[in-house]
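User:
Can I borrow your eye for a moment on a structure tokenisation matter? Would you put together a sequence-and-structure record for a protein of your own picking? Please set it down just below, with no commentary around it:
AI:
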Amino acid sequence: MQIGQVIWDVELTRPEFPEVSGQLDCDVCVIGLGGSGLTATLAAAQQGLNVIAIDADRLAAGAGGRNGGLLLAGIADFYHNAKEMVGHDRARKMYQATLDEMDRMQATVPDAVTRGGALRLAHDESELADCKKHFEALIEDGFPAEWYEGPQGTGINITSDGVFHPTKRVIKLAQLATEAGARIFTHSPALSVNSGEVITPNGKVNAKNILVAVDGNLHKVLPELSDKVRPVRLQMIGTAPTNEVKFEYAVYVRDGWDYWQQLPNGRVAIGGGRDLSIETEFTDVNEPTEFMRKYLIDRLDGLNVKAEIEYHWSAIVGYTHNDLPIAQIVKPNVYAVGGYCGTGNVIGALLGRAVIEKIATGHSEVFDTFASA
């Protein structure tokens, strides 16, 4: 078993980029080269802005390249709960915005995205009742969903959702961004971020606008947000290719605590169990644990998967105290997006794009809809 190795990196090599050196000038500096930062970088370049994007590590070294590969509409809370939390109109706008973003993601990186639905399954009678409320709320507002009773269980097939390959996606986004004129730098941590400048170990970026598109370590890049977001470790394991099972759909169950999918090559990737060790997983230590590995192996056994476990990896993400993502102007011309509560694959891209729209045009309805209270 390869501890720390990510299933998505098999047979793929991420491109290398230089470090920041000396003084650079730009219209927009994007900090963070995951899905949200790269989407923003591409959008800025396509708007004709002079954009520089940097990361403390390599391309998508964080959760953007180490996640579960699920594309799910909406915010972290299920749609019926979101309506109660933020109000019907705002929840509807948020949900529709994520659907629109998934359309853009699929159009931008079609080789990395498959949208054939994803299942929210019921683990017990209580969750079954909640699935029915979730389903009814989606249908009431005209969002795509079907009731599912099939070989994988009982619950909702949210037919707009799907899966994607994180590494393929980030490689393609970086390629498109550089072709559009963006300058990308890696291994260049932002030591300090102030209006107009980003300081790195070997250089400085002078920027009219700055977007911090970092999720799990947002509190480190912008200490001003330490009271709003906490780092959380999510863990996954992956199997060797297997034909023991055929999972047609990606799944999330136990209110989203557990999730899995079967890749086209037959490997099964499964994550979850954090609720069984809540306090230990509130951490920014990106190291897999034996406790969680045993839980996930047992979970696979319950799914009749006995294939050899070849990978075990973790990722650090950001959780907010109110379960809403951060979309905020932290100080003059310094924007922050993050704190996606484990569901940043779509929302991160959406908010990264929204910030660029606001910078380029002075207005973004999406940014205003999600703007932090």
